[in-house]
Amino acid sequence: MDSNDTDTLLALVLSLLNDQIFNTDRILDALVQCDGDAVAAANMLNGKQVPLDSEVRKGKRKRIELDSWLKTARPNTVSNGNSPLPPPTATLRPISKPGSSSIRVKPTSKSESKPVDLSKVLKQPPSMKKAPIGLPPLLLSSPSLVAEYTPCTLHLSVLPPELACKLFYIMVDASRKWSRNKWWLFDRVVESPHRTSFYARKHNGVDGDETWQEAAQYWYNGRATETPETFPPEMEDACKVVEEIVNEEMNKRRRFKLEWKNVVDGEKSWRANVAASNCYEGTKESVGLHSDQLTYLGPYPTIASISLGTRRLFSLREVIPAAEEGSRKARTFNIPLPHNSLTIMHASCQEKFKHSIPPQSVIDMYRPAFSRSSETQIEPSNCRINITFRFYRPDFHPASIPRCKCGVPTILRPDMRNRSEEETDRYWWTCYAGAQNEGKGCNFWKVMDIDAEGRGKFTATI
Ligand SMILES: O=C(O)CCC(=O)C(=O)O
Ligand SMILES: [Fe+2]
Question: Which intervals of the chain form a coiled coil (predicted)?
């Protein structure tokens, strides 16, 4: 989970805006384009660095510097689509000094002797792209729609019904002791609008208590914690079912270069070794738009998320690469997650999409199919429990995580906006000390070099 809670970020951007009024979608767009950086998003909206699409929408198309265009214009120039200048619309060549509005250029064709007015030629250059049209949110109400539009799959009624119900009760009871994540954002402490907890799966023969302790600490945004609890037996049972489904799905999918390779008897084999659990009570509890930190997961993780209790919407929104911003807009996909469903965020989801559980104006009460015991009545609940099963990679072991100048483990993030075709090219390690240290961190920033750091190419079995 990410500390950049969207509601907080929205409030922060609003506080930094000049007098203009923007709707929430526009601010979210700016935040997504600035990868969650509130100051950069506010600057962008305040006009310090306005992207082409919003300029066009506001009718403030960037003025073309005639002078510079004329200097660079060459006969038969072909546009690559990235140039801020329009390509010549005909084989034009300037014959007089630019600078006045009545510049004339002479066509190269000898048959046409009458000069044409350059401003007319420039009026609608064909390469000047129209603003991409924003599409309304799409409700993906079936597993096939989810698979078609997103890098996720949805699986319904996955656990034996009694196990799903029992696990719901156990986690709701446990959640009374869970905490709300707290962290520093600039100069203030913010708190996530839901409760969360971190579990380690014991006896996997790989890691000791201290390892899990550090990993758990960073689930809580760097706050020191006790060694996390181990999976309760019902969570262990659920995990086994989830692993089977995940492996079946993974065997149908392509692999990514930087993905962790775990092959058992020639088959891809995914295992969970930790789980994070969240409880959302009522309509308002939520988690803002984020992508999961990759610090211990490494690139291209597969994350399997069980939903229990009240149905909530899971929202996904792509981060459009900078190079494609002029041609397409991000769309929000909303997936209703009923009780006892499994959502798998497959490899590339954290690199391409952000996800959230938005607040809702209404929710249905969940009516458990079984009572807690023979003496108790069935009681409807307004809680949703989520358990995300994750695999913390041995080649991203806590001891191997770079420390920043504050001496604190850094966090790993993908360069979402500059990814190319299928694979994200770059990940970076950044200081995260500020989340707990009154907002004060260092400016440590380092591109991950997977080979130099001795990671990857890892084939292991657990
Ligand atoms: O509750 C959910 O389904 C999502 C939780 C989540 O995004 C997270 O824990 O990182
Ligand atoms: Fe998440």
Answer: none
